[in-house]
Design brief:
Elements: H1 23-42, E1 46-47, E2 53-55, E3 75-77, E4 83-86, H2 91-100, E5 109-118, E6 130-139, H3 145-160, E7 167-173, H4 174-183, H5 189-199, H6 202-214, E8 217-219, E9 229-231, H7 237-247, H8 261-271, H9 277-294, E10 302-304, E11 318-324
Parallel strand pairs: 1-5, 7-10
Antiparallel strand pairs: 2-4, 3-4, 5-6, 7-11, 8-9
Helix pairs in contact: 1-3, 3-9, 4-9, 5-6, 8-9
Amino acid sequence: MSKKNKPTRPKARLPRGFVDRSADDIRAVEEMVAKIKAVYELYGFDPVETPLFEYTDALGKFLPDSDRPNEGVFSLTDDDEQWMSLRYDLTAPLARHVAQNINEIQLPYRTYRAGYVFRNEKPGPGRFRQFMQFDADTVGAPNVTADAEMCMMMADTMEALGLEKKYIVRVNNRKVLDGLMETAGVTDAAQKLAVLRAIDTLDKFGIQGVMERLGKGRWDGGSEGQGDFTKGAGLDDVAISRIMNVIGFGWEGSSSEGESNSVTTANLEALFDEGTRGREGALELEMIQRLCYSAGYNETQIKIDPSVVRGLEYYTGPVYECELTFDVTNEKGETV
C-alpha cells in the first residue's frame, strides 16, 4: 500500500462538554441514586422511564423558533423528515407521557425518573453538555399539600444522603412576589423580569447588590466604573425599600433572622389585601408551613423565605430549593 492510500487514524479526543466516568464515580452515583430512590418509594412515588429522544415540537416553548432547532439542544431529522431532539430535561418528556396516556393514568400521578439530559450549550468549569437529573413529580394535585410533601421528601432525601443539619429547604410562592411587585407599582413585563433577576442574585451580591440592581444598576466591581455594568430595573427608592423589606426577611444579618415560619407567613399575610394574588400566595405558604411543622419539620430544615425566585419565567405558585449550608470543594480543594 502506498503512503498516499494509507488510511488516516482518527485522533483520540473527547467531545467538548462531555466526560469519561471512572469506576469510583460510577459506584458513588449508583449508591446515591439508590438512597434517593428508597426515599421516593417510601413516599409512594413510582418509577417511569421516557426515551432520550423526543419530537422537537413536544419539548416546549423554551426551544428557539428556527428551521433548524439546534440552539440549546442537540437535534436531527428522522427518515420521515420530522425533527427529533435529545431531551434537555426530564419534565417535558413527562408532560408528553401524561398527555399521551391521560386516559390510563390515575390522578394525582406520582412518579420519579432518573436519567441523563443534554444541553447544546457552551461548556465551562463544572458545566457539562451531558449530566444526570433525578425528578419527582406529582401531576394533577388539587392544592399545595403536594408541595408540602415535596419539601418534606427533599429534607428526608438530604438526611438519607448523610447531610443532616447541613442543608436547608427554602420555600416561597411566586404569587407573593407577584403581589409584592404589584404593591410596588411594577406592572411592565420586562421590568418584572428585571426585578426577579435582581432578587435572584441575593445570595451572590447581598442586600446592597440587589438594591443596586433594582435601581439604576450595578457595577461588577462594586464601585462605579469598575468591571461591567448591569442595567437595573429602574425602581425608585420607595419601591426598592418596599421590596427589600420583604425579601430581606430572615436574611443573614437582618433583624428578623431566626424568626419562626409562622411569624414569616403572618407578616406576609398582613402585607396584602383580601382576595389579592399576594394574599393567596401567603395563605398557601401558611398551609405548607403548618403541614411541615405538624409532620415534625422545623425551621432548620424547611424555611419560608420570600427571597426564593427559582425559574424566572415559568413558575406560578410554590417554589423551593435546597441549599447546602457548608462550603463544597472540588478535587483541587477549591470552594465551588
